[in-house]
């Protein structure tokens, strides 16, 4: 992730998007993020993978990432080029897995209420600001503490630990 400012298009989804639709169970033998990303959301939105571009955002309502505890889900999202997920709320295990694999996420219900599919967004992860460039509205999410931003910027917990150990 170059810098903490992200820009892209919003892909809008509803509530309770679970890990089974983020990455269907039939692909759980895959481990490469790019291979997982090729199947991201294919059962929920079959054309998503063809239309999404590097840097775009997934925007969803409450309880994003519910269901099975699988790191494959945030890996698939990262693997298809999505730069950040913005949701009204996240399932706790998805939240933790996202940080562990270096996928930026933000909880910001007011922004979700404002963002429509196709809107152009700018997100400042350091400040926790979500700007909907299509509507001109700006929203404040809780930014991550410095150490969590470092985990994300390094690509996840494994790389963070390697750096801390000097390897």
Question: What layout of secondary structure does this protein have?
Answer:
Layout: E1 5-12, H1 19-22, H2 33-37, H3 48-51, E2 57-60, H4 72-79, E3 84-87, H5 92-101, E4 105-107, H6 109-114, E5 120-124, E6 129-132, E7 137-140, H7 146-153, H8 157-165
Parallel strand pairs: 1-2, 2-3, 3-4
Antiparallel strand pairs: 1-5, 5-6, 6-7
What is this entry, summarized?
The protein is of the alpha/beta class and 167 residues long.
Fold and architecture overview:
By secondary structure, the chain is an alpha/beta fold. It contains eight helices and seven strands. The protein has helices at 19-22, 33-37, 48-51, 72-79, 92-101, 109-114, 146-153, 157-165, and strands spanning 5-12, 57-60, 84-87, 105-107, 120-124, 129-132, 137-140. Strands 4-3-2-1-5-6-7 form a seven-stranded mixed beta sheet. β3 (84-87), α5 (92-101) and β4 form a beta-alpha-beta unit. The longest helix is centred in the middle third of the chain and has 10 residues, at 92-101. The protein starts with a strand and ends with a helix. The relative contact order is 0.18. The mean pLDDT is 95.
């Amino acid at each position: 992730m170059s810098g903490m400012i992200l820009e892209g298009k919003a892909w809008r989804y509803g509530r309770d998007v679970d890990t089974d639709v983020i990455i269907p169970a039939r692909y759980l033998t895959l481990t490469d993020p790019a291979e997982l990303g090729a199947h991201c959301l294919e059962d929920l939105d079959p054309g998503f993978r063809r239309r999404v571009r590097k840097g775009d955002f997934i925007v969803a309502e409450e309880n994003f990432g519910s269901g099975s505890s699988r790191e494959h889900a945030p890996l698939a999202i990262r693997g298809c080029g999505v730069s950040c997920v913005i949701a009204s709320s996240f399932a706790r295990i998805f939240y933790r897995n996202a940080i562990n694999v270096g996928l930026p996420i933000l909880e910001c219900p007011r922004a979700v209420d404002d963002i429509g599919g196709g809107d152009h967004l700018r997100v400042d992860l350091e400040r926790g600001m979500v700007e909907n460039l299509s509507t001109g509205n700006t929203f404040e999410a809780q930014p991550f503490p410095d150490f969590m931003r470092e985990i994300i910027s390094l690509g996840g917990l494994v790389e963070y630990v390697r750096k801390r150990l000097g390897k």
